[in-house]
């Protein structure tokens, strides 16, 4: 199943690229297809916890999870459709910071090497012997060693990862939830908000309910089931883009972007309008400044209204 979903996701990305859609429109397909192929590889070494391949694939999966909010917000908030492009840029930076904080809870970053020394002066920095041994209540993935194994309600792949305890400097998995959902819920349009609300129920909540059938593997399994669903959920966003925004997006969203005030210089729609106006002036034409509709036509003709 992982192979089929991964292949379908890549095929969809290829189709969108062939149709001239911008990278943002199909980046989620590519990213979550990578996760499906990662899980497919993990099944071949599942339960072999002493295997370096197993451990490497487990760490690769966690790194993938850490950067998921970046990819999701890149789709929903980056680019032309956002009336305030600087918001998308700021959210991207926050997502990168969140990913680094998630990775700092693993023993693969320098913090683990310096932790024992730093702990003497700053007790909130964990020591190397605390990784995986002080997991807080139902902490996703947290276990004593890095390992991918099968188990739980569905026999789905599960991940155990030795995470440092949460402190003032190191956040829990809540940071993933916050950066995954909150930016779009607060800065996206109503359609994007509805998509995100639906994803909360069909994503983490549904996967938690499935994994809860076996609480012995619950913390290791529910997030991996969500990764399995995520590639399918990406289709929803693309369908909305191709159909819901097909007519409304070019006119209404562009008109909104033309009214962004002091951020107008970031809008390619306004840039197109300015270029058209300059061209008319240079030609000695008597036409007035181009309207939003004219700007949209100029931009849409270049297939970059995204």
Automatic annotation (TrEMBL):
<feature type="transmembrane region" description="Helical">
    <location>
        <begin position="168"/>
        <end position="187"/>
    </location>
</feature>
<feature type="transmembrane region" description="Helical">
    <location>
        <begin position="59"/>
        <end position="78"/>
    </location>
</feature>
<keyword id="KW-0812">Transmembrane</keyword>
<keyword id="KW-1133">Transmembrane helix</keyword>
<dbReference type="InterPro" id="IPR043912">
    <property type="entry name" value="DUF5765"/>
</dbReference>
<feature type="transmembrane region" description="Helical">
    <location>
        <begin position="194"/>
        <end position="211"/>
    </location>
</feature>
<dbReference type="Pfam" id="PF19069">
    <property type="entry name" value="DUF5765"/>
</dbReference>
<feature type="transmembrane region" description="Helical">
    <location>
        <begin position="223"/>
        <end position="245"/>
    </location>
</feature>
<feature type="transmembrane region" description="Helical">
    <location>
        <begin position="90"/>
        <end position="113"/>
    </location>
</feature>
<protein>
    <submittedName>
        <fullName>Uncharacterized protein</fullName>
    </submittedName>
</protein>
<keyword id="KW-0472">Membrane</keyword>
């Amino acid at each position: 199943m992982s192979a089929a979903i991964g292949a379908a996701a890549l095929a969809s990305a290829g189709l969108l690229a062939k149709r001239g859609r911008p990278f943002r429109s199909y980046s989620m397909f590519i990213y979550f297809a990578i996760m499906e192929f990662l899980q497919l590889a993990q099944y071949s070494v599942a339960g072999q916890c002493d295997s370096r391949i197993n451990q490497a694939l487990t760490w690769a999966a966690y790194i993938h999870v850490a950067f998921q909010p970046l990819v999701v917000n890149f789709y929903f908030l980056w680019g032309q459709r956002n009336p305030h492009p600087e918001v998308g840029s700021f959210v991207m930076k926050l997502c990168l910071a969140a990913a680094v904080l998630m990775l700092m809870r693993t023993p693969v970053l320098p913090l683990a090497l310096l932790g024992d020394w730093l702990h003497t002066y700053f007790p909130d920095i964990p020591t190397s012997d605390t990784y995986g041994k002080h997991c807080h209540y139902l902490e996703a993935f947290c276990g004593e060693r890095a390992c991918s194994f099968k188990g739980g309600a569905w026999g789905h792949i599960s991940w155990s990862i030795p995470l440092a305890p949460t402190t003032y400097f190191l956040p829990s998995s809540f940071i993933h939830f916050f950066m995954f959902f909150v930016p779009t819920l607060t800065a996206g349009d109503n359609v994007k908000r509805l998509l995100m609300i639906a994803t909360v129920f069909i994503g983490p909540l549904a996967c938690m309910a499935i994994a809860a059938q076996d609480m012995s593997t619950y913390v290791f399994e529910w997030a991996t089931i969500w990764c399995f669903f995520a590639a399918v959920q990406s289709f929803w966003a693309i369908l909305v883009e191709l159909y819901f925004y097909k007519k409304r997006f070019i006119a209404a969203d562009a008109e909104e972007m033309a009214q962004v005030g002091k951020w107008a210089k970031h809008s390619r729609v306004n840039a197109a309008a300015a270029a058209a106006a300059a061209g008319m002036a240079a030609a000695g034409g008597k036409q007035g400044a181009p309207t939003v509709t004219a700007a949209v036509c100029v931009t849409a003709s270049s297939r970059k209204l995204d």
